[in-house]
Structure formats: structure tokens, C-alpha cells
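dumping this here before i forget
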Amino acid sequence: MKKLLLIYVLSISCFSISAQTKTWVGPSGGDFDVEAYWSPTGVPGGSNDVIIPTGSNMIFNTVATIRSFTLQGNAMATITNNSITTSEASSISANAVISWTTGEFRGTGTITNLGTINLVPGAALSQALREQVTLNNEGTINFNDTGLFKIGYGNPTLNNLPTGVLNLNSNTQIVGGNNQNGTIVNTGLIKRAQGTGVFEINTPLLNNNGTILVESGTLQITDENTVLTNGTYNISSNGILEWHSVPEPGITCEGTLSGQLDGPINWNWNLNIEAGTEAIFDFDGPGDVNWIQGKLKGDGTLTNLGVLHIVDGGQGTTIKDQMTLNNEGIINVEENSVFHIGDGNPILNNLPTGVLNLNSNGSIVDSNNQAGTIVNTGLINRVQGSGIFDISINVDNRAPGIINVETGTLKFEKTFVGDGILMGNGTVQLINGIAFEGRLSPGGHPGILTHFGDYTSTSDAIIAPEINGPNSGTEYDVFEIQGDAILNGDININMGYVANVNDEFVILTANNITSCNLPATVTASYNFMQHTFDVICNPDNIILKVNNIILGAEENTLSNLTLYPNPTDGNFTIDLGREYSGVTVQIYNILGQLIADERYASAKFIQKEINTSAGIYFIKVSIAKKGSSTLRIVKH
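structure:
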């Protein structure tokens, strides 16, 4: 019984020793290692919880191994070239301040900062988080030093919580240590508001819906294990955010990245989207995202809702693996850029709201002898540059997709398929036996589209010239083929005036037409004057000759099309009978004047309104490759 009592007493004694608290009672500016400055007397050790009361000002002038520390009230402490090792939870109160000149936090403890930590210059040495220590920041940490801040030598964490602010005020780096990188986790605010140089974060940054604000200078994020998940990224006009991860996998993005870009995000080197995930760029403002060089990889999906500039920084830009880049905004391929889409089966998916501007005399090419694909249901524009832009990957131009070539030459060297529109006043070149199967609309209302080299069209192809008058190139469209032609398909005329019987329109020229399988006659109407044209295939041109003009509504070639109610008070519904793509609805009054014209990517039911005066109206519905139908409706 006595032995048991002795063991119990010793256990209580050991527990009391292990949990003993030491309180600072020293003078302002006193040193940690003075025994008399503590109550109870003696320098704190590994079994002591340290209290630094409000109003105190203490200097950690030596290595300190303690259980924990607490800065209370407005207490102040200075760390000078020494390490503080903790094993339990420590805290810094909301009005307390630590001035950190040099030295380290290490151990296995967790430090929660509610106050202010100032990293201040200290003989060009560095500060560090080491081992398994966690620094939870709910207050403010000011990086004012030009020395390195290290997070490494183990697996430490700087956890910037929702109320936390990291002020990156100097031109320095946050790096790992001894090839062991710690982690910055941000759910708060990382702010670069001072300095005109570069602040680099070269340790893993996990931005979990946090905010990154660059008001001045450059913030460079370089570690390849960085993950940007959601979050707000605001860049002022004097700031730059640079993603610069050379090693693979590169910076990983996931979720929606948004913010106001008055300055740029420079995407320099590798960006990774994991398989089965999507990252969305949803930035506003004039600053835009500049993709300078590097790879987009990882088998996921990146969706661009803003403006993305592809600017060749010398190493090229590449979409690889099974990546999909969805464009619902604007992508500008800038001067002389080489844009690689290949090395796997990647896709650039230019969606109906997307615009792909080919602004240079550059190229979109394969990578590692593997060609990716551009799928276009939006707009691809070639409106700048007088030279050649070369696309040597696969192109699928699907209705309602448009490829508009206004200047220079656009050259297609791989497969080219789809029922979309090819139009403009520039020059196109389909090589390697490509047979065109889409809708060809020469000119720019109207004009001349030139094809360099031999040309072949399939039975699905449509030539769709505008005829607004008798003069070629200025009043009606011409397709000029600088080579031999094999012509199949249909002709769909957009009539813009009333012609005369026997008028002729040379809508296509070629060096030699070796085969012509076009319809013998075609019809088109203007102001409900239906024109019938003979299609004349000559050895070197195609002529449309007017052989008859009659007055009347067009025949309903879409037998399942209905509209209701009729008569109407103005609002009515068009029922197409089934889902169609490439639908155009035009409304004419009794005088043949166009009062509404709208295009739909796809539709089955269309709601319309006539908001003009009561009377008789004609509703013309045109469907790509299916024809058109005109119905009469009465508005009360």
C-alpha cells in the first residue's frame, strides 16, 4: 500500500513539473536567458509553458526549448538569430507583436497568431519554420526582410486562415530547406502591395479559395507542387502575378479562378489540370492572362471565360496529353507564336461564344508527331497579318461554327471536317487532298474568297454566295480557286436585291473544273420575288443565270414546321418538329422589309415577338443544309 501511495505521489509530482508555467517578470528589452526575469525563478525549459504578460517586451536572445508560449495583451517579443522549439499549442494575442530578425520556429507545436509578426532585416540572414511546426495565422505577418524565409527541414506548415493577411512587402523569397519543402495553405489574403521587384514563393502553395492581391511589383509562384483551388486573384495596373513552374507537373489548378485583372497574370511554363477535374478562368478587367511558354497538361479540362493571349516566349506553348481547353471567351494567338496541340490527343474546343483570333503569321502545330484537334462551334478569326498562318493539326468546324479569313492566308494541313461556315476576303488553302464538306460563304458581305491550290468539295458542301447587285466582288460574292476544282454539293443563295431575267453571276472561278456535280437549277427570293437560276458549269467558272422571276411566298420545304397562335397579338411560337442546328429566323413585313433577323445554334421551339404595328407578316425559317420555309402570320 505504501509503494502504491509513493508511486501516486511521484506521478503527481512529475505531472506538476511537466506542466509548470513560467511567467516573464523582467524589464522591457530583457533577455530570455536571465533566470531572475522569470517567476518562478529559472530559465524556462522543455517542460515549461511560457507566459509573456501584456505590457512586456522580451528578447529571445538564445536557443529556447519550451513546451509552449503565450504573448498576452499588447506584449512584445523579439527573436534574434536563435531557434524556438515548442511541442504544444502556443498563441500570440490580437494586440501582441513579434519582431523576427533571424532564427527559427521548430518542433511539433502549433503557433496561432492573432496579432502581428514582423519579419525585419537581420544581417541578410533568414527566418525559418522547421520540422513539424504549424504556424496558424489569423492576424498579420509582414515580410519586410530581404533575407530568405524558409519553410522546410521537415514538414512545417504556414496556414494563413480566413482572417489572416500575409503582406509580402520586400523583394525576397519563401523557399524550402534541405530539399524538404513545407507548405503554405492560404484561405485568407496574400498581399503584395510594396516594392517594384520580385517576391518569389518557391515552396508548395495550396490556395484553397483564398485571395491573392498584387498591387505593386511582381509576385512569382514557382514551386511545381503548388495547387490553386478556386480563389480570387486581383492584379492592379502596377502589379504582375507570374506562374513560373518549370519542373513538371507544374502549377495545378482546379475550380473557378476569378478576380479583377487590371494587370496581367503571366503564365510562364507548366500548368496542370488533373484527370477528371476542371479549372475555370473567369477573370474580369483589361489585364488578361498571357500564356508565354510551357505546357498545359494533366488530362483534365481548362475552361476560359475571359481573355487569354498566347505569346510565344521562345519555347512555344503546348496543350498535351488528353487535355481539353474549352474556350467560351477570347483566345488571341499573337505575333509569330508557335502554338502546339499534340503529344497525346488534346482538344481545343472553341464553343459557340468563343472567339479564337489568329493575330499573327504564326502557326498551330502538332507536338511529338501527334496532332490534336480544334473543334469549332464558335468563331475563328484571321483578321490581322498579311502572311501565312499555318494550322497543321486536325480541324472539326461544326455548325454553327465560323472560320472567317479576312486577311492573309490561312492554311490547313491536316484533316478538315464539319458542316460549319468558311468565309472571308482572304486566302485559304486546304492541302493533302482535303475535301470540303461545310458551308462556303465567300466575301465579307460581299467579297472574294481565294483558295490557293486544287480544291475538292463533297456532296454535303454548300456554296452560299450573297447576291446584292450585278458587280462581282463588290455586289456579289466570288470564290476564286487558284488551281483545279472538283465540285460537288449544293448552292444556297442569299439574295439581296431583285435581279432581271437573263442576268448572269460568275460565283466561282478555277484554272480547270474537272468535275461539276452541282444542281441544274437553284432558287432564291428577295422581297418575295422568287428567282430561279440555271447553274452553268463551264471549264473554268460557274455561272448563275436568272431564267425566271415570280411573285409569291416560298414553298414550305420543311413539312413539319408550324407556328402558333395565328392570328397573334405579337407573341408566337415556331415549332420546327425536331431539334435542328444552324437555324435562322427572319421576319418581313408586307412590303418585304426585314424587321428581325436572329440565328440560333440549335433549336426545336423558338419564341418570337412582332413588336411593330398590326398587319400581315412573313416568317422565313432557314436551316443549314435543309432549306427554308416561309409562312404567313397575321398580327391583330
